[in-house]
Amino acid sequence: IGWLGELHPQWVSEWSIQQPPTFFELDLTAVTEQGVPVVEQISKFPSVNRDVAVVVDESISHDQVIDIAWSTGHDGILKDVTLFDVYRPSFSGERGLQIGQKSMAIRLIMNDMNGTLSDEQIEDVRMKVIDALSVRANAKLRD
Q: Alpha-carbon distance 102 to 119, whole Å?
């Protein structure tokens, strides 16, 4: 969105300037399009992470997997979904995968502002994500 820098030391010395001046230029359009961050209250209850690894066809993208996970009915409990591993086999049968398939592992971060999550709530969100991936991406849970 812009640049920042100091006047070259050669010119500072030649012009006998005490402190090197700092210059900057910003692209106003880029700055105004960013929007203002929204402050959110931090939960005093612990977050819970669950990792889910699925086998999908090579044609399934990172964005599709993330979008499907977010689209589940998670009652606001799901706070973040991150892809942290993609594995493609070198040959058919390697680690139970075939050529044309890949394993994608996502981390689900869950939290509730109103209390500590129960095992049932956590498993419900996890299963909703797995079921949605199965239906919409033909994903299979990796062993």
A: 29
Q: How confident is the model at residue 93 (pLDDT cuts 50, 70, 90)?
A: confident
Residues 102, 85: Cα–Cα separation, whole Å: 10
Q: Which amino acid is at 25?
A: E
CA atoms within 13 A on the CB side of 5: 6
Residues in Cβ contact with 56 at an 8 Å cutoff, skipping those fewer than 6 apart:
65, 101, 102, 103, 104, 133, 137, 138, 139, 140
Contact predicate 69/50, CB 8 Å: no
CA 25 to each of CA 2, 4, 20, 30, 126: distance values in angstroms, whole numbers, following the listed order: 5, 7, 17, 12, 47
Amino acid 77: pLDDT: 94
The DSSP bridge pattern shows strands 48-57 and 101-110 to be antiparallel
Cβ distance 52 to 129 under 8 Å? yes
Structure-token pair, residue 32: 């105004």
